[in-house]
Amino acid sequence: MSTMSPAEALDRVVYLLDRDLAEGRRVAAYAKARDLARELGDDEVVRLHRAGELLDQPGIGKSTGNVIALAIDGGIDEHLAALEAETTLDVGEGAALRAALKGDCHSHTYWSDGGASVTEMATTARGLGHEYLVITDHSPRLTIAHGLNRERLLQQLDEIERVNEELAPFRILTGMEVDILQDGSLDQDVDLLERLDVVVASVHSKLRMPEQEMTRRMVMAVASPHVDILGHCTGRKVMGSGRPQIQFDADIVFAACARFDTAVEINCRPERQDPPEELLALALGWECKVSIDTDAHAPGQLEWQAYGCDKASRMDIEPERIVNTMSADDLLTWAQNHPVL
Ligand SMILES: [Zn+2]
Ligand SMILES: [Zn+2]
């Protein structure tokens, strides 16, 4: 066998496809084959391959079977090198800024709608040079994303505590991407929001609300001392069939962000690229802080911070204004000290 086991090779393919925002079904096929290979173990996978029975396994197809064969018979390194090259991110003018970031404040795991465990996400973030990763799975009313109710959030906090012991000095910070409900209240118990290290608040429902109501809704959330970051503020999607921006009075919302020291997120997801530059310029005019976050739902997507760094660099945003240039301790101090209305 080559230096890489079939499961390891499949895992790397998943990573690279996620980095490239490949179609969900395609990534899922490799992830499923990887999970099966892990379950069967190396010896059994080799035996099946030698017996010519690999493709009889449910969950192994032509492409995934090919990766397994290359890992066993040789040739996987060349195959992966080609895929590495094909999916490489072009880090442009934001490279220096990217190097200055110490963490990522918005990420998802298996606990809600992510495609990897807390450990896998954290290990990848560490490999990318970060000192910390904030895990921000969804809140309960986002049922489509399997949002975390009180009980499941508490279970997740226990898991994070365990993984933190294994990965120290790397730090996993606790958090949530909490839904901003229609009346501007937050979709999680206040005692839990208080306990979490970093809270991102986002609008995910009733996106067509009239501007005046939407403005009030967002200002209410931003004014909460528990909210640290306003997530993907316009809700737009710029790929596929797309999605229009929600309507809100940006001057009022960003003035509130500045007043309550809530950072405006630069969401790095290629299909979001939120906020657009003219709105970001407005937020900067109000002297808002920003947070450059991937909103990663898989390890490979943690590399997307480069996109937000390019944007921030183009717009001359000083590193001091970017909350994730702070150390974990400074970030926590900031998050615990928002002015109260
Ligand atoms: Zn979101
Ligand atoms: Zn998110």
Detailed description of the structure:
By secondary structure, the chain is of the alpha/beta class. The protein has 14 helices and 7 strands. It has helices spanning 6-19, 24-40, 42-50, 62-73, 76-87, 95-100, 118-127, 150-167, 190-195, 211-223, 250-259, 277-285, 305-314, 328-335, and strands at 103-104, 132-138, 171-179, 198-202, 229-230, 263-267, 290-293. Strands 1-2-3-4-5-6-7 form a 7-stranded parallel beta sheet. The mean pLDDT is 96.
Major beta sheet summary = 7 strands, parallel
What sort of overall outline do the alpha carbons produce when their principal axes are compared? elongated
Structural class: alpha/beta
Our count of helices gives 14
- The tally of strands reads 7
Q: Taking strands numbered 1, 2, ... along the chain, how are they ordered across the largest sheet?
A: 1-2-3-4-5-6-7
Determine the N-to-C terminus distance.
63 Å
Helix content: 40-55%
Beta-strand percent range: 5-15%
Provide the gyration radius in Å. 21 Å
Ligand inventory reads: zinc ion
Q: If you average the pLDDT, what whole number results?
A: 96
Would you identify the regions where 5 or more consecutive residues have pLDDT less than 50?
A: none
Order of helices and strands: HHHHHHEHEHEHEHEHEHEHH
What secondary-structure arrangement, pairings included, does this model have?
Elements: H1 6-19, H2 24-40, H3 42-50, H4 62-73, H5 76-87, H6 95-100, E1 103-104, H7 118-127, E2 132-138, H8 150-167, E3 171-179, H9 190-195, E4 198-202, H10 211-223, E5 229-230, H11 250-259, E6 263-267, H12 277-285, E7 290-293, H13 305-314, H14 328-335
Parallel strand pairs: 1-2, 2-3, 3-4, 4-5, 5-6, 6-7
Bound molecules: zinc ion (2 copies).
